[in-house]
Every structure is written in structure tokens, then in C-alpha cells.
């Protein structure tokens, strides 16, 4: 097996708790697995408490409550309170759907540190179309209430071809809502975004224009709003340092208790990801096959193996290598040194062709009916 | 931005300063991030509680560490902290 370099295992720092795959929204770029409907089991409140407690003991401190929509779990306030008692810095990653002022106050009292609200676009029509539900007005109201109750307000907008032209309006909306942080996340093409890629991937011209606008805005609001710009790696020449290195920093627990080195790792074959029902977090992190699989750089092939940047980008993303080349050991094809770089150009060309065609196929929305097809 | 020596200094309500047992150091936590602090930076920030201005922080730290001449170092760090939004002056 890969990853025999087990010296210097660093402790987890970030825990992503995916409480549920249930979600009232149907975003066609959702990062949940395509076959999420197959994994409908959810671990109990007590299981989550044990996970939080064990991961905290190892050194995890940043905690994201995610999903699906985590608000569909009635035990969220109880878990937020428990997390605060353990000393986590906790974040609710939400669509805002179902979030009332009463709940916002209740979670604040429980000790939740911040709330990240996602908005799909700057107009009601496009937001509601992408979300697959009427939600725009409520999301803006939620953003205001988050701010009103003293949380740092983090606004997240996923960027793709359907909304990239709205960049100036999206930035104006963030300013109007008083966001403290704005995450402009260029879509990463995994899960649902992968199957919808021809309809979501913007052209290079669109990317460049949007990036220039965002950059100018960043300078304008410096000191007032912090911008996190997630780069569109299809247009980069070097891969992202995915997860800060496999099994070094990030621990994701899926709704059914499966522990993942990254939230897409379920797609990789033969990893045999362990479940928290069967193992302690310590055993999972230190000893499991899955978490050791791509640790260090023993697993690498050329050109990564002899590359002088291998300790900076770790060969890029394993899931992207697998989805695009069929081989999870290969260099992330985004890299200019990858012999498979052409697959990226093919994807870009295919998306451009789709954008220019008169009869574009429709988006596949993320819902249980569509999920059962996978 | 630079520190106004007259005004009291507060730690930001949008950040959290806490001791991390696993790392054996103080850290600043905020959305999507964490800054690890060395001991002297942490000692300075712990005194930014809204009751002290610059001179009072200098006096308290020099007394605590039984030394003198810390003022310039403290000013440089507080300017960094202010520009990172870790502290504020109302």
C-alpha cells in the first residue's frame, strides 16, 4: 500500500462534522457524493459528542458543522454547546434555510462562534433557480440577523458560469449586508459539480475579468472585509496544496460516521475509510489505512517523485487525479508538468462548446431522486 | 493604522484568544483561521482587556518580567495586532 512514511504524523487541527446529507436546497455544484442517498444513516448525538471529545483531545480546534443542511439536525444547539465546553472554535456552515432569529440567539448562547451563510447569486431569480428553492430574501435576512447578534458574518458565494457575470453585484451585496468575511469560492469540480461541469465551468476570459473585479474590491475594502478567494485550479499551472497535505490537518466525519481525509475521499477506490462506530479517532488518525494512504510522499509517481515542489503542493489533489485520469496516484492533471494536462484543456474546450451551443443540456440538480441514479 | 497611546486597547470581539493544551501555546482563532502566538505576544494581548492604554500595558509587562525598555517592541507588536484586527480602540 501507499504512504509508508509514517514519521512525524501531525495532529488534526480542523474537524469538519458533516451532520447530515439532508438538505432543502438542490445546488448543482454540491460537494456531497453523487450517491449520498445510499448513505442515509446518521450517527447519534452521543456518537458526535464522542467524536468531538476525542478529536479535541488530539488537538483539533477549528470545527465546522456542515452537511447537507446541519440545521435539519435537532441536536445542533446541544452539539454547539458541547463543542464550546471543549474549547472548539465552531462554525455553522448553512444555507440559512430554516434559520430563525430565535435559533440564531439560541446558538449564540450555546457558544457557536460564527455562521457562514451561502448565497447562490445576487438576484432572486438566479439564486432561487440554482438553489432549487425560493430562498433569496430569507438568506439576506439571515445574513443581517447573524450580524445583528454579534457573530462575525461570513458570506459564501460559489462562483461558476451561471453567476460569474454578477461579480460586481455580488460584491455590492456583500458590502450592503456588512459581511466581515466574503468567501468567493470558484467551483471545484467534484461530485455534482463534476457531472455539471460543461454548464458550470466559465471561460478563461470570464475568470480573468471576475478575478480583476474581485481583486480591485479586495483593496477597496481592506481593513473592513476580508476576502477569501478560492482559485479556479483548471486555469492554474500548479495544483493546489490539497487539504494542506493528506492526513496532516483535516479530518472530515460524514453523516454515517465514516472518517475521511477530505470530504471527497469517499469517491476513491480501495481506501477502506474507517467508521467512528468501530474505531477511536486516535486509531483512525494514526493507524488507519485510509489516513496513511497518501501521507508523506512515498506513494508518488513521476513527475511528482523527483519534483522540487512536491513538499509545497503534495502532488495536488488525489480526487482530481482519480476523477480526471482514472488513477489516483498520478500527478494532479492541473499541473503543467503532468503528462495528462490535456484532459484539463479538453474539459475547458468542452465547456466552451457547451456555452456556445444553442441547445445546452439542463443542469442536474442535487436531490435524492437524482442521487439514486448513481 | 497605529496605536493611539491615550486610548484603552480591547481585544477584538470577532476573534478568540485561548491556550491550546495540545500545542502548548496561545492561539488566536477567527473564521477559517488560526494564528499561533509566541509567549511575549500572548502576554501583551492578554492585557488588551479595555482597562489599559499603551503605557499601562508597558508598565505591567515590565513589572511582570522584572525588566525595562520593552516599549518599542510592544508598540511594534500592537501595531501589527491592530492592522490584523486582533485588537481595537473605540
Record field, number of beta strands of chain B:
5
- Our count of helices of chain A gives 15
Biggest chain-to-chain interface with counts: A-B, 21 and 16 residues
Structural class of chain A: alpha/beta
Uncertain parts of chain B: none
What distance separates the N and C termini of chain A? 28 Å
Distance between the termini of chain B: 13 Å
Shape of chain B: globular
Give the biggest sheet of chain B: 3 strands, antiparallel
Oligomer: heterodimer
Topology order of chain B in helix (H) and strand (E) letters: EEEEHHHE
Strand content of chain B: 15-25%
Low-pLDDT runs of 5+ residues of chain A are none
Structural class of chain B: alpha+beta
Biggest sheet strand line-up of chain B? 2-3-4
Number of helices of chain B: 3
What would you report as the Rg of chain A, rounded to the nearest angstrom? 20 Å
> Overall 3D geometry of chain A?
globular
Mean pLDDT of chain B: 95
| Main sheet attributes: strand count, strand direction, barrel closure of chain A | 9 strands, mixed
Task: Average the pLDDT over all residues of chain A and give the rounded result.
Answer: 95
Describe it.
The complex is a heterodimer of chains A (374) and B (90). Chain A has helices spanning 45-58, 76-86, 101-110, 124-131, 136-148, 167-177, 191-195, 197-200, 204-220, 281-287, 289-292, 310-313, 318-325, 342-356, 368-371; strands spanning 14-18, 62-66, 89-94, 114-118, 153-159, 181-186, 226-230, 250-253, 259-260. By secondary structure, chain A is of the alpha/beta class. In chain A, strands 7-6-5-4-3-2-1-8-9 form a 9-stranded mixed β-sheet, covered by helices on one side. In chain A, helix 2 packs parallel to helix 3. The two termini of chain A are 28 Å apart. Chain B is 36% helix and 21% strand. Chain B is globular. A 3-stranded antiparallel β-sheet of chain B has the order 2-3-4, with helices on one face. Chain B has a two-stranded antiparallel ribbon with strand order 1-5. In chain B, a hairpin with a 2-residue loop joins strand 3 (25-30) and strand 4. Chain A binds chain B through residues 11, 13, 57-59, 61-62, 87, 89, 91, 113-114, 116, 150, 152, 154, 180-181, 183, 223, 228, and chain B through 1, 13-14, 16, 18, 20, 22-23, 27, 29-32, 34, 83, 85.
Amino acid at each position: 500500500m501507499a504512504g509508508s512514511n509514517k514519521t512525524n504524523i501531525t495532529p488534526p487541527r480542523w474537524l469538519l462534522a458533516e451532520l447530515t446529507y439532508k438538505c432543502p436546497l438542490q445546488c448543482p455544484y454540491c460537494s456531497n457524493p453523487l450517491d449520498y442517498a445510499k448513505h442515509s444513516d446518521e450517527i447519534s448525538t452521543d456518537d458526535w459528542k464522542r467524536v468531538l471529545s476525542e478529536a479535541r483531545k488530539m488537538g483539533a480546534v477549528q470545527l465546522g458543522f456542515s452537511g447537507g443542511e446541519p440545521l435539519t439536525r435537532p441536536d445542533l444547539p446541544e452539539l454547539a454547546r458541547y463543542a464550546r465546553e471543549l474549547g472548539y472554535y465552531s462554525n455553522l456552515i448553512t444555507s440559512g434555510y430554516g434559520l430563525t432569529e430565535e435559533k440564531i440567539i439560541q446558538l449564540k448562547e450555546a457558544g457557536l462562534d460564527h455562521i457562514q451563510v451561502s448565497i447562490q447569486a445576487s438576484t432572486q431569480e438566479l439564486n432561487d433557480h440554482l438553489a432549487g428553492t425560493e430562498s433569496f430574501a430569507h438568506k439576506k435576512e439571515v445574513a443581517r440577523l447573524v450580524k445583528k447578534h454579534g457573530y462575525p458574518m461570513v458570506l459564501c458565494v460559489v462562483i461558476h458560469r451561471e453567476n460569474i457575470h454578477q461579480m460586481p453585484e455580488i460584491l455590492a451585496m456583500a458590502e450592503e449586508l456588512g459581511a466581515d468575511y466574503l468567501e468567493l469560492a470558484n467551483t471545484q469540480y467534484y461530485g455534482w459539480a463534476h457531472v455539471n461541469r460543461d454548464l458550470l465551468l466559465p471561460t478563461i476570459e470570464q475568470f480573468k475579468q471576475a478575478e480583476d473585479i474581485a481583486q480591485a474590491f479586495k483593496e477597496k475594502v481592506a481593513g473592513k472585509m476580508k476576502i477569501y478567494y478560492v482559485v479556479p485550479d483548471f486555469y492554474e499551472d500548479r495544483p493546489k496544496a490539497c487539504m494542506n497535505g493528506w492526513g496532516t490537518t483535516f479530518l472530515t466525519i460524514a453523516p454515517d460516521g465514516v472518517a475521511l481525509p477530505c470530504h471527497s475521499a469517499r469517491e476513491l477506490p480501495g481506501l477502506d475509510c474507517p467508521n467512528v462506530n468501530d474505531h477511536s479517532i486516535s486509531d483512525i488518525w494514526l493507524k488507519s489505512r485510509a489516513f496513511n494512504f497518501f501521507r508523506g510522499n512515498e506513494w508518488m509517481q513521476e513527475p511528482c517523485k523527483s519534483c522540487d515542489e512536491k513538499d509545497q503542493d503534495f502532488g495536488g489533489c488525489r480526487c482530481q487525479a482519480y476523477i480526471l485520469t482514472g488513477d489516483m496516484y498520478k500527478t494532479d492533471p492541473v499541473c503543467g508538468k503532468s503528462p495528462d494536462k490535456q484532459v484539463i484543456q479538453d474539459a475547458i474546450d468542452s465547456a466552451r462548446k457547451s456555452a456556445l451551443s444553442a441547445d445546452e443540456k439542463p443542469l442536474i440538480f442535487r436531490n435524492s431522486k437524482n442521487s439514486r441514479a448513481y | 493604522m497605529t496605536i493611539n497611546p491615550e486610548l484603552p486597547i480591547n481585544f477584538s470581539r470577532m476573534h478568540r484568544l485561548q491556550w491550546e493544551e495540545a500545542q502548548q501555546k496561545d492561539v488566536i482563532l477567527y473564521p477559517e483561521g488560526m494564528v499561533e502566538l509566541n509567549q511575549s505576544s500572548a502576554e501583551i494581548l492578554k492585557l488588551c482587556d479595555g482597562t489599559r492604554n499603551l503605557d499601562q500595558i508597558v508598565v505591567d509587562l515590565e513589572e511582570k518580567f522584572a525588566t525595562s525598555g520593552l516599549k518599542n517592541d510592544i508598540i511594534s507588536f500592537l501595531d501589527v495586532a491592530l492592522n490584523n484586527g486582533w485588537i481595537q480602540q473605540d
